[in-house]
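REQUEST FORM: STRUCTURE PREDICTION
Request ID: SP-0412
Submitted by: Lab K.M.
Chain count: 1
Length (residues): 518
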Amino acid sequence: MVIREWVVTIVTLTLFGTLYPHGASAYRILGFNTSPSRSHVIVQDALMKELARRGHHVTMVSPYKEPEQMPNYRKITVPLDPWASDFTKTIFENTNSRLAMLQLMPEMLRLSTVPVNKTLRSQEFQNLIKEPEGYDLLITGIMNDAVFGVSHILKCPVIIVCPNAPMAVVNSMVGNPTPISTIPNMMLGLTNPMSFRQRVANFAGLLFEEVFAGVWKYYQRKTYEELFPPGQYPAYDELRSNVSLVFVNHHFTKGSPRPYVPTMVEVGGLQIKDKPSPLPEDIRQWIDGAEEGVILFSLGTNLLSSSIPPELLSAILETFRNIKQRVIWKWDTHDMPNKPANVMLVDWLPQDDILAHPNVRLFIMHGGLGGIAEALFHGVPIVGIPMFGDQPVNLAQVEKEGWAYVLQYTELTVETFSKAINEVLHDPRYRENVKRLSQLFRDRPQSAMDTAIYWTEYVIRHKGASHLRYPGADMNFIQRHSLDVMGFVAFMTFVIFKAISLSCSWCCRRSVAKLKKQ
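STATUS: Completed
RESULT:
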């Protein structure tokens, strides 16, 4: 009996040590993300759920209902105002005009503050932050700057989950450097190595990004100050620069390697499960029964497929009608006119789990970083149709790596779409390249999730981990790049040379004067 008790004790301690290698307590963690892009919330929510599985008490606030119920995980939903349909139509109407997309940016940035304002003012959230137990950590996404005021109320550190490679507005939170000679601007579709002409364009892209960041912060500051008036709460910039850590959903194997300060941690593929969940029965049967394999078609969470213009939709349907593969299409309405028999419509699908199935031959997608990471992890080649944002540069990189065929939306016809699909399906180079790169993507000392869990608990254990903070984060642009020092050195050099010049001139004049007297 005593031996059995000892065995139980040892097993319990071993299990505890595995789950909590640093003896971590069960912390209370608040998650907040009001992004209108559900894919951004999915990345953060994957972390929140895993924290709950590991024993922490997690509350997640977002606009999206959560069907999954699990211990230690509480979901509070404050729905978005209707926006997706109009947004999708606007994108389809303007995606062939870079100028039109640029003109849309200010309004898109303004609208991004609306759900933050609505959620923070909601009764559900107000009740939440008044709970006597408090919280040990706030985890939030980008475009949620007003929530930093909540971190002041709760007296807890903040971690940001960035759903893609960091832009200037995110880098500025922790002072992360971005060398413009080696880091292509995400809006330009450039890849390394860049030519002189491309580096000139990249410099212009940096200037645009700084303007973008200024507009972003203008609207975020305005919302913050409405909710947390100056004088009663710390200044917006003070709290914004007090972020403890940024998780970046990026990995050096699927983008340009870049420098990071200790407070910025790569966790590319954070939402990808090590072991896929069982598929819904109808999807499983559809994939298992596809003798020629399956193609997954999704334009992500922002773009509604039902808003595709009729002529483009007709070209896509005609292409699918003439291939042997079955298609799973993320479609947002109950029916589709003239739907081919080999197409299955799903309004919401477990994308990561589907891509993990060995019968999936091809992924047709818009170029979102999350979808690219999932395709890379599972070794599925891509036909990419970039629409906006970072999608062109994401797809330009994977096309260069040899496992994607990129087709511009404005060039999509039955002929071009059929050519793209058939080339990726039947040219073995695409699958060979993605399988090789998948091994690189998977080869890490820790999984993306284990890395994120470790640093999350680290920040809590060390009360915000201020010792990680890069001194450059508290400097302005001139100080951080030593422009003041270089100006001072240049001035002193000028003064010294001027003094030497005047001294020499004075000596020469004295010498000439003496000679004349002689």
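NOTES: The radius of gyration is 27 Å.
Reviewed by: T.R.
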